[in-house]
Amino acid sequence: MPLLAERKFRRAAARRRQSSGSRQRAVSAQARRSFSFRLFLLPVSGRQRPLGPMSRRALRRLRGEQRGQEPLGPGALQFALHDDDDAEEEGPKRGTGARRPRGAGKEGVCVNNRFELINIEDLEEGPVLNGERPECLLTGNRRRSQSGGADAKKAGEMAGKAAPPEQSNVSGKLRKKKKKQKNKKNTTGEILENGLEDIDRILERIEEGGGLSRPGPPPLSSKKHVLYVEHRHLNPDTELKRYFGARAVLGEQRPRQRQRVYPKCTWLTTPKSTWPRYTKPGLSMRLLESKRGLSFFAFEHSEEYQQTQHKFLAAVESMEPNNIVVLLQTSPYHVDSLLQLSDACRFQEDQEMARDLVERALYSMECAFHPLFSLTSGTCRLDYRRPENRSFYLALYKQMSFLEKRGCPRTALEFCKLILSLEPDEDPLCMLLLIDHLALRARNYDYLIRLFQEWEAHRNLSQLPNFAFSVPLAYFLLSQQADLPEQELSSAREQASLLIRQALTMFPGALLPLLEYCSVRPDAAVATHSFFGPDAEISQPPALSQLVSLYLGRSHFLWKEPATMSWLEENVREVLRAVDSGDPAVEACESRRKVLYQRAPRNIHRHVVLSEVKEAVAALPPDVTTQSVMGFDPLPPLDTIYSYVRPERLSPVSHGNTIALFFRSLLPNYTMEGERLEAGGAGGLNHNQGLNRLMLAVRDMMANFHFHDVEAAREDNPEGDGEWD
Length: 725
Known about the structure:
This protein is mainly alpha-helical. It has helices at about 1-35, 55-65, 85-90, 135-145, 150-160, 165-210, 235-245, 245-250, 305-315, 320-330, 335-345, 350-365, 385-405, 410-420, 435-440, 445-460, 465-480, 485-505, 510-515, 525, 535-540, 540-555, 560-580, 585-595, 600-610, 615-620, 620-625, 650-655, 660-665, 680-705, 710-715, and strands at about 40-45, 45-50, 80, 110, 285-290, 295-300, 380.
């Protein structure tokens, strides 16, 4: 090992000496050839006499040049690359003007430009064994350098004839080196391409062997899942930019000061600098199981979050929104408190604050997502029977409602698809009663038609009044577009007429209320006919009346266009002709109405409560309207899965303590000392906390008192009201 290190050191020193000596020899030789043997004639006393050679410095001064600007010939700078051992032996023996003969010793490379050494550094690379390079490497390099095409050889020969011998030798070897590098790149690219082709062939063989390839055209869902959610459409700014331009949307959103840094990027909402600093509230998500390509998740509450949830339920029972405000001061990202306070703000016409609270709740829940939970795949499920998951459903629904009112139906449609994808089979919020309306408002007719075609076979969407009327309307509006071929337009018009006749035959009681909503007076032949008259609306089942009222109260304005009304009138007359002729489809539809719409399921009632459509809410059955409906959990499922139970509290009436009852009315969290459980040393701490809450409640109560100034009232009305003598 020491001997090898010494050899390396000696080679490096010899290389430095060789480079410096070669540079000095080249400069001196050029100077001698250029200036040393020239004679200058200077006028001296009327005659000229020759002078001896002048120094290089004097010549530069005389010609006005600086050092380093001398013109160099083609052979001025020549460097020979040879073996390091030869350099060690011959380097000290060479003089200033000595030149190594060509062909002597090992093969060398002559270089005219010192910067060409950069391209031929690889000539010195390679393993060195006992001070010598293996012969196989040298022969391999020669073979690779000779493997170029005929064009490269001809170009090298022509260049060799035109150039000097030394320069042609160098340029030829440089060309060979560059050609070798290009060949290496080409071979590498060919290997990669061949490797990719082999991988594709292997995958094809695996698919053929496993029977995964199916003959025939692929299904529609293979292109993109019908409930596939796109991230860019979850941002309402994307839709607003398309309507009004980026400058109008982002003009007021440019921050004037440095924004607060939030822990992660979110898709459902954009964090705001006015929100409290985010800290984990104790909300998390876990993966329950994965089967048949679906992943089932569930939100979880920590012990601290459970205590906050108990306080929230007590605040809701007090029927005082200020108690929820006090709770949010200590837990600013408690989801149920944010949703309940959002409803209170909405009832007070503070829409901006209500929307901000819903966005904060969505942000809190999105920060708790499991790493495998995906919003766009359509394969992640959340069971609505778990109370922890319901908050996410309700937050998405409230955000969707705000987006629709804001004028962003495309974004609202994406949120509707997201809610439906979380549990499409059960559909706890019954989003199928709303998705058609949002698709028509967003003018996404193709999506509505595709959803109807794919789900009609197993979901019977045509039995819902909203789909029965919205799908033919989508076909008709699609036929009104001028950018489609004439054949597609006529086909869409025929399909629209066929479906609207089926809808009118199945739901005849929806025609007159629709015309009344649109302020259109029906024809006498239609209004007095027994099929479309008032008897049709009265005779339909209550559950069907509720669905029709929900659809008409939400989507009636989509039918107000004159072209749509004239198309509807034509098809109404066709249906009347079929009824008068005794079409058997009319009786079949009547018997189907009596069987299918006996009673609406609980998810439809839940949807009606959340929609707040007056006509549909008025049609709710008495067993729903008589029970208390909470905004944070409307009509919970009867088969709820509880992960933890709220502890029972003793009723203050049982103690007969009037003072405790008074304090409990001020602050629902207040408990007397006898009502607490024995908890050891924590009793004193709980007692102090109860007193502090009581003092805060009394302070708030005193701040809300208003005293009337009696003297000021007398000055305003000195004569009195007249009722008092």
